[in-house]
Amino acid sequence: MRPDDDVVLFDGDCSLCARSVRFVVAHEAEPRLRFARLQSAAGSRLMREAGMDPENATTFVVLSRGRVYVKSDAAIRLSAHLRWPWKLLGVLGWIPRPLRDWAYDRVAGNRYRVFGRPTACVLATPEIGARFIEE
After folding, report:
1. 1-5 contacts: CB < 8 A, separation 24 or more?
2. Domain ranges in the chain?
3. Which is nearest to 114 in space by CA: 23, 10, 14?
4. ∠ Cα 113 63 56 (to 5°)
5. pLDDT at 135 over 70
């Protein structure tokens, strides 16, 4: 990993999360993000290093320059890596965090029921696979 890489930790058992990874890769301004499944050895290690319990991983996480972003803050941090017009999603940061996180929790709490579990691997292309942190 390069020191300026941001790392996205996501639920590898969630179709919405897998689609989100593919969306981010397709719309990134520069290919600087790295990815790890929360359920992987690398994801567990990174969660512990960030002071989080990998056994209680209920949200996606963005690790950026020594800071840990979760829930809506992680989504807003992630938007900084996207091309226009998707970068504009960062304006959601103006909404108070409790309201943003309430909306995040509603989607996250229903993600398996609404979006299901992936039937195919998120590593659909070598481009995406090369950006995963594996141990």
Report:
1. 1/34, 1/133, 2/32, 4/32, 4/65, 5/32, 5/33, 5/34
2. 6-129
3. 14
4. 45
5. no
Global confidence as pTM: 0.85
Calculate mean pLDDT across residues 58-67: 87
Asked if residue 104 lies in contact with residue 74, where contact means CB atoms within 8 angstroms, the answer is: no
Separation CA 72–CA 32 (nearest Å): 20
In angstroms, the CA 30 to CA 82 distance is 8
**Size (the chain), residues:** 135
Secondary structure class of 3 (helix, strand, coil): coil
Better-scored residue on pLDDT, 97 or 117? 97
